[in-house]
Amino acid sequence: MVPLQIDRHLMFTIGLAIRPCSNCTLGGRLSGVYNNISLELPKTALLQAHYFRKPNVYVTNFPDNPTSSFNYTGKPPSNIMAKGGTRLSYLPFNSNVQLVLQSTAIVALENHPIHLHGTNFFVVGMGLGNYNASSDPLSFNLIDPPERNTIGVPLGGWVALRFQANNPGVWFMHCHLEFHTSVGLATAFVIENGPNPEDSSFLHLWTFPPADDDQAMIGRSIQNVFFLSTMVHRCRNHLYSIHRLPTLKLYAPSA
C-alpha cells in the first residue's frame, strides 16, 4: 500500500552538468548528476563494502535536498560545475520515503527514465515546471497510484514517488540511458537491517561455497545468493506483482 505517513522527505534534482577536466579541450566534461553530485563508482562493489563493513569505500551523507536552489527548469545558473563522489543515501529499515525527482536545464532539458533497484515505488504525483512543496502535494493520488520500478521524469518537470524501505541492502538508482549512467547519473540507497533475521542483508557465511579466504569470491557469492533470497522475500510478502521474471545471471567465480 502507498505510504501515507512519511518519515523521510527527499528531493533530488536530476540532469546533466559539467565536471572540471584538466585534460579536456574546454576544461570540462559532461556528467550526470543528482543534487549536483556525480557518482564515482569505487573499485570495491558497494554491496560487498556494506556486507564486510569496509571503510573508505562510500559515505552515507548524500544530501536530502538540492545543495543550492535556482530556477531548475529555466535559465541555468552561471556555475554549472558538478561535484563528484561516492555519496549514498541512508534509510532506516521500514521508513516511509517520499522522493521528488526534479528535472533541470543546467546543460539541456532531458526526459530521464529512472530505475530503482530493490523495491517498487508508487507514483503519487507528476507535473511540469518546478515542484512546489506547498501546493503540489494537494493533488497527489494517494488512493490508487500506479506502482512501478522505472519512471520517466517529465521533460522540464518533476515526479513524486513514495515507497517503504523494507528491503535491506544497497540499492542502485540510475538513469536507464546507459550513457548517462556511465557519466555519473546514479546513486544508491543504503537500507539498514530490520529486527528479525529474515530482515537482514547479512547472510550467514556457511550458506556460501568454500572460499579459501578469497574475499573477492565471497563477495560475488554474496551478490548472487542475496539477489535470489531477495526475490523469494519479495514474492512471499507480496511486495509487488511479478508479470515476468527477469533473466537471472549468476556469475560463478573464476578458477
From TrEMBL:
Q: What are the subcellular locations of this protein?
A: Secreted
A GO term for molecular function: copper ion binding
Q: Mind telling me what this protein is named? A: Plastocyanin-like domain-containing protein
Q: Which Pfam families match?
A: Cu-oxidase_2
Q: Chief subcellular site?
A: secreted
User: What is the organism of origin for this protein?
Assistant: Ceratopteris richardii (Triangle waterfern)
PROSITE patterns on file: MULTICOPPER_OXIDASE1, MULTICOPPER_OXIDASE2
**Protein family (similarity comment):** Belongs to the multicopper oxidase family.
